[in-house]
Design brief:
This is Nuclear protein. The relative contact order is 0.10. The chain is globular. The protein is an alpha/beta fold. It has a 7-stranded mixed sheet with strand order 4-3-5-6-7-8-9, with helices on both faces. It is built from 12 helices and 9 strands. It has helices spanning 2-8, 27-31, 55-62, 94-100, 118-123, 165-174, 184-206, 213-219, 221-239, 247-257, 272-284, 292-300; strands at residues 11-15, 18-22, 49-51, 69-71, 85-87, 109-111, 130-133, 159-161, 180-181. The longest helix is centred in the middle third of the chain and has 23 residues, at 184-206.
């Protein structure tokens, strides 16, 4: 009976190649309620649960006041902590993170991941979930983040959306980083711009082995310019929106700011896969491919 009871308090959650293992939770831990008092003082940061102990998660914890709860792999997400839940894991771990989070707390999740998350949000009933477009970089664990300011956007590019957006912005600003709080439409436009940046620069770079982001911007500008224009047109048509002028200039300016970044097509499902799905949908309907160059280069590299 004791063994059976222990097993009931043990949960294993799997998502892809990642496994979240929950250790047995004692009655004391189950009944313990974490109370986080949120101060309105200018120099205070709202305590948060931070899911993920990697570079970004640790950096966000360092920007707090010492009252955060860091949830590493294998640890449960507290149910009674009043405040945001900052999710700083890989995209492929999101399924397991969601399963490890009490459903009553899903509305407090704040996602820091790159890529197109909207289809996944919709499939999980998360609706307009809180998101952060993080344009700051953390070179290695324990080092302070570097803000992603550019010559076209010296005010900074990082943006937050949702009910906890102001709390996230305050945390980042407390550490000297920029962060704008945006409404849904401007946030969606900026999210799509970042998606276009990562899809275009990584794909062009992959066609030229060893090319960094800076090399793509400097040496293969014509290729990336064509791809940016194509992906922007497809995204605008799909989402029924109009982007601000000079997108290419903004994306190339950001590339100069992170010129040392390597290039590779990764997390296909969350990035280039969204544009490829638009191509597949159009072709299935007997319509022209909205992203023919993108499709051709994916096939050239045998990604699809």
């Amino acid at each position: 009976m004791k063994a059976a009871a222990a097993m009931m308090n043990t949960v294993t959650l799997s998502s892809g190649s990642s496994t979240f293992w929950h250790k047995p939770i004692s009655r004391i831990n189950q009944n313990f309620k974490i109370r986080a008092s949120i101060s309105t003082s200018d120099n205070m940061v709202a305590p948060a649960i931070i899911v993920g102990g990697g570079r970004v998660g640790r950096a966000l914890q360092d920007l707090g006041n010492g009252d955060d709860v860091l949830v590493k792999r294998g640890e449960p997400v507290p149910i009674d902590f009043v405040g945001p839940i900052l999710v700083c894991t890989r995209n492929d771990d999101l399924e397991a993170v969601l399963e490890a989070t009490p459903k009553s707390r899903w509305s407090d999740l704040v996602f820091f991941q790159n890529g197109m998350l909207e289809p996944w949000f919709q499939s999980k009933g998360l609706g307009d979930a809180d998101q952060v477009l993080a344009y700051f970089a953390v070179s290695k664990l324990g080092e302070p983040p570097t803000d992603g300011k550019t010559d076209t956007n010296p005010e900074g590019l990082t943006a937050a959306y949702g009910k906890w957006a102001s709390a996230v912005a305050a945390r980042l600003q407390n550490g000297g980083l920029s962060c704008k709080v945006l409404d849904k439409e401007p946030f969606q436009k900026q999210m799509l711009e970042k998606l276009i940046w990562i899809c275009a620069f990584m794909l062009v770079g992959a066609r030229h082995p060893g090319a960094t982001v800076g090399a793509v911007e400097k040496e293969y500008r014509s290729e990336v310019s064509k791809l940016i224009a194509e992906l922007a047109a497809a995204a605008a048509a799909e989402k029924s929106l109009v982007f601000e002028d000079a997108m290419e200039d903004r994306l190339c300016a950001y590339s100069r700011a992170v010129a040392h970044f390597p290039t590779a097509v990764k997390e296909f499902k969350w990035r280039n896969g969204w544009f490829y799905s638009l191509s597949e949908k159009a072709i299935a309907q007997g319509k022209p491919d909205p992203c023919p160059l993108h499709t051709a280069w994916l096939k050239e590299l045998k990604i699809v």
